[in-house]
Design brief:
By secondary structure, the chain is an alpha/beta fold. Helix content is about 50%, strand content about 20%. The protein is built from 15 helices and 11 strands. Strand 6, helix 6 and strand 7 form a beta-alpha-beta unit. Helix 2 crosses helix 10.
Amino acid sequence: MFKFRFIRLVVLALAVSLFAAACASRNLSSQSQPLRVGTIPWAGYSGHYVAWSKGLYDRAGIKVQEVALPSITDEVAAFLAGKIDLAWIPSGSAMDIYAKDPSSRIIFLVDYSNGSDGIVGRNMKNSADLKGKAIAREDVLFEKVLLRAFLKQNGLTEKDVVIKDLTAPDAAKAFIAKQVDVAVTFEPSLTKAAKEGGGEIVFTTENTNLIADVIVAREGLIQERKADCLSYLRAIDSAVKLVKANDVEALKIVAERVSTTLEGVKDQLKGITLFDIEGNKSIAFTAEHPRNLIGHLELTVTAAQDFNIVPKSVKVESVYSNTLVKAL
């Protein structure tokens, strides 16, 4: 009997050791994998550009693989295909992701647009002049929300215009080529389109909370690689602080990434409110603050429901997670 019990204890101990080793190996394997980060060219994503170029991720002890994408549509597709782990993306496009992958969560407020997203037009006094005209805009929620806000000023909807689905950069090009009379786009394409297309900027996000950019991750990543995610966000925080301090080297990095000059990127950043960790703690996820992200997301979820992107049953608290911000 004693011999049998001894053998059983040995087998049990061996099994426990093997299980622990397997878990450790799996955890080590997970931690050794780089975080795949997707972005598009946009001055609001300065935090990533600067952290990447200045080696701040390495200093924070986190491996990052950058996946540069040409458009928001491509970034949404990349996330849904599992090609990226973190997406820097407009909150409206986060709804597009959530509709197909309910495990996705908004984890960090990157910026609020304060004039850097807008609409360019030719030969028009107000949105009433858009009736029956062709408008180039990308089939993503944040551009729909922006256009809807402008059309609503004179009682119009998208049913009153002809929509041409083009990415934001291509919409600007179509306007310059005079293939359309109106285009929804963002900087640096916005100013370029108005100047080279013989038009003017007729509506922007200035003094509104219509558009926010956020970082999106899957719930599984938040739980399984929490330490990595926290290190990542701390590196972003350091980078954003450099940009806010007008560090010349940091600004040059951003200018190169968005294909403009140093002065050009300074102008673009004037239309963008960047958020660091403190801003996320004191504003984004603080219900009492008038410009909090939660209130913005309530509007975004409602718009997503109106456009039949997400079901009417979706609650705003299901699309974001403040777990990481609270832990910073």
